[in-house]
């Protein structure tokens, strides 16, 4: 046993949620139904002669940002593209109140900052300058735009974007202006992209790829007077504007939308792309040994970075038994972030390694309580039905259960190489009394 508090602290910090670096990345293709980011998303960009626009989805925390970062590196290093990646919720987007106009402006701002044109002509800043009379109030600026240097103009653009995210009244007014000038804005952006592409091609780059990450965190809103949710309005009703940029674009999108409106998504964007969960149990309920091994490896690699001796035998040095380690892996449901969080929570109840049964029990209990408190009374029967059938209806409430990770989506590759989709209830929910009661009631009907 290790009573070194510094060792526990180092391990604790190794399990802070963050996109996996190359040192801790685990290839999960075999336990994700054969899914691979290059084949699912990358080849469409690499092989297409025309700009593409793709929606990339999956449960929150399943590893989308990690896969996008891997795709970015591949597109840059092996395919010769210039990639503009940004996490939209960090600066540009307020997830609790977002519209397509916010997304277009976010792409615009990040593109201008990433590619510095070597010519004096900058179509986007020219567009902003021609409307500065309306926009300077929203940027809370009294400066004369034309008199600013290039760097100062970018700063003013940044102020506008920051206020768009932070001030609700500004968001509403800016959206009105963008809605009224969408055509001219997209035209200006595309003129910028053309100039930027020509400049980058002289330096050996093939073209531009924009990756707008974390848009799947936009909260689901359906107002009483709207027939369509905000997700439908952004991705479907405004799909032509979202697809209007004349370069390759990847937007992350909420999994509930992509699953429930799959036909419409495919019609507008092409093949839907969903990052699957790691299969821990097969559809028939049997243990998936490969999935379990993959989750153990995710834990081991994080420990190996800072405590290599502990990592040599995590089933006895980090946890008190192999069974306890496997229980944590199983209860994650194949969700990488949940796995990381469960280890993190268990370490809160650990003063001396290895992690004991009581600490894991505390971690699982705290995680389970979140589901117990958040699931509506009328949802237990639906969850029991999903558990029995491994299918998920397309109604709004069922899709919200998917978005809330009460229901998880999996893919298994059959003998013909076809990925078959199925759904299951998160394993943390299975021991909750209300779920067991609903399951028993359904079996006696």
Describe what this molecule looks like in 3D.
By secondary structure, this protein is an alpha/beta fold. It is 54% helix and 9% strand. It has a 5-stranded parallel β-sheet with strand order 2-3-4-1-5, sandwiched between helices. Strands 6-7 form a two-stranded antiparallel ribbon. The longest helix is centred in the middle third of the chain and has 20 residues, at 182-201. 41% of the residues are buried.
In spatial order, strands of the major sheet run 2-3-4-1-5
The total count of strands amounts to 7
Rg calculated over all Cα atoms: 24 Å
Shape: globular
Strand and helix order: HHEHEHHHHHHHEHHEHHEHHHHHHHHEEH
| Average predicted local confidence, pLDDT | 89
Share of helix among residues? 40-55%
User: What fraction strand?
Assistant: 5-15%
Content-based structural category: alpha/beta
- Flag low-confidence runs: none
Distance between the termini: 52 Å
What about the largest sheet?
5 strands, parallel
> So how many helices?
23
Question: In summary, what is this structure?
Answer:
This protein is 54% helix and 9% strand. It is of the alpha/beta class and 445 residues long. The longest helix has 20 residues, at 182-201.
SSE blueprint and pairings:
Elements: H1 5-14, H2 37-47, E1 53-58, H3 64-77, E2 82-87, H4 88-91, H5 100-114, H6 123-130, H7 132-138, H8 150-166, H9 168-180, H10 182-201, E3 208-213, H11 230-237, H12 239-242, E4 248-252, H13 255-260, H14 262-269, E5 273-275, H15 289-304, H16 308-311, H17 314-317, H18 322-331, H19 336-348, H20 357-374, H21 379-389, H22 396-403, E6 407-413, E7 419-425, H23 433-444
Parallel strand pairs: 1-4, 1-5, 2-3, 3-4
Antiparallel strand pairs: 6-7
Helix pairs in contact: 2-3, 5-8, 5-10, 6-10, 8-9, 19-20, 21-23
